[in-house]
Amino acid sequence: MINMSKFLITGGAGFIGGNFCHYMVNTYPNDQFVCIDALTYAGNLETLEPIINKPNFKFVHENICNRDAVFKLFEEEKFDYVINFAAESHVDRSIENPGIFLQTNIMGTETLMDACRKYGIKRYHQVSTDEVYGDLPLDRPDLFFTENTPIHTSSPYSASKASADLLVQAYHRTFGLPCTISRCSNNYGPYHFPEKLIPLIIKKALANEPLPIYGTGANVRDWLHVYDHCTAIDLIVRKGRDGEVYNIGGHNERTNLEVVKTILKELGKPESLITYVKDRAGHDLRYAMDPTKIMTELGWKPKYTFETGIGPTIKWNLEHQNWINHIISGEYMRFMKENYNR
Ligand code: NAD
Ligand code: TYD
């Protein structure tokens, strides 16, 4: 008999959760995958279109904070693994309205873990972020975030993600919940919502619009292709040790200005489109991951560097203009107007 596992993937209509659903459904045809997503402004069912009719995939339109619905789903489906991507994920929106970040990112995590406790699972995995470590100074390129770097958050977004991480660790210690946490650096790749830097710049450059750079553009982010994030989570869920945190990153640090100039060069657009705008409040200076633990303990290796990953990402955006146009709702237009009129 085939040994089948059943997975719950939350937030699968979003950027990273969507890529993860594609990866898992196609890689493990003998396993079953249920995706639950509230379809907020950031969720789009079109992202799941290539797999929505596969026999090993099911979509459930629901909010992870809806306790009754979540418990009912767990009772019916009897999951082996739960992987929580669902979140409010945009720092600028968390500055505008922190409340919804606390609700989804913290209370949603609590609801899922309570269901795991009641119905039993093999592993709960929390998808976290490097932003829980705060930032590093720009003049210390020798410093990196390790799993032992203290949590020190800057934005309501990162504070909500760090709170959820602490709650996961508390459920592990107090209730013995089998769990793992991954903290990844900034992702880019297909199905990236165009409010985040890379898809926003591609979209605006194609339209010959001004490209908004916060502050001086000297802030550094460590960019990982979303495919590599997916393979890392898959490994952690199957082979990681209970109660452990794993950092994910591929040493691809770039200043925001370098990222924007690379995109302009690839698209053959002029640097004169670059426009410096008011800096983000509390703007983290530099993120840089040390992925030694996941590489040595689990043998994970990224497939892409920034140089090999950015070209295909730009090509994907060029070839999926319909997906981009459909995701740009009235809510997107309102946020763009308010954020950039600050
Ligand atoms: P995203 O905003 O693109 O997608 C989030 C998804 O969650 C959307 O489909 C949305 O509809 C869904 N969602 C939101 N609230 C929900 C709720 N209450 N119930 C059910 N579904 C809900 O986010 P993303 O960039 O794909 O990030 C996914 C996860 O990865 C997040 O937990 C984020 O913190 C983490 N992460 C992101 C990055 C990055 O660079 N984007 C890096 C590291 C970690
Ligand atoms: P973002 O994609 O929002 O990710 P995060 O804040 O989670 O790292 O932003 C990446 C970097 O780009 C960050 O330093 C802020 C900067 N940025 C701009 O300069 N202009 C923009 O319009 C946006 C959205 C971001």
Q: What do these coordinates show?
A:
With about 350 residues, the protein is an alpha/beta fold. It has helices at about 15-25, 65-75, 90-95, 100-120, 155-175, 195-205, 225-240, 255-265, 290-300, 305-320, 320-325, 330-340, and strands at about 5-10, 30-35, 55-60, 80-85, 125-130, 180-185, 185-190, 210-215, 220, 225, 245-250, 255, 275. The protein contains twelve helices and 13 strands. Strands 3-2-1-4-5-6-11 form a seven-stranded parallel beta sheet, sandwiched between helices. A two-stranded parallel sheet has the order 7-10. The model has no long low-confidence stretch (mean pLDDT about 95). Nicotinamide-adenine-dinucleotide (NAD) binds near residues 11, 14 and 88.
Key structural traits:
43% helix, 342 residues, 7-stranded parallel sheet, single chain, binds thymidine-5'-diphosphate, binds nicotinamide-adenine-dinucleotide
What does this entry show, briefly?
Helix 6 packs parallel to helix 8 (256-267). Helices cover 43% and strands 16% of the residues.
Instruction: Report strand %.
Output: 15-25%
Q: What are the secondary-structure elements, in order, as H or E?
A: EHEEHEHHEHEEHEEEHEEHEHHHH
Choose one word for the global shape. Answer: globular
Number of helices: 12
Radius of gyration: 19 Å
Q: What molecules are bound to this protein? A: nicotinamide-adenine-dinucleotide, thymidine-5'-diphosphate
Number of strands: 13
Distance N terminus to C terminus? 60 Å
Uncertain regions: pLDDT < 50 for 5+ in a row? none
Oligomeric state of the chains present here: single chain
> Quick one: biggest sheet?
7 strands, parallel
Instruction: Report strand order across the widest sheet.
Output: 3-2-1-4-5-6-11
Q: Specify the helix fraction band.
A: 40-55%
Helix/strand class? alpha/beta
Query: What's the overall average pLDDT, rounded?
Result: 97
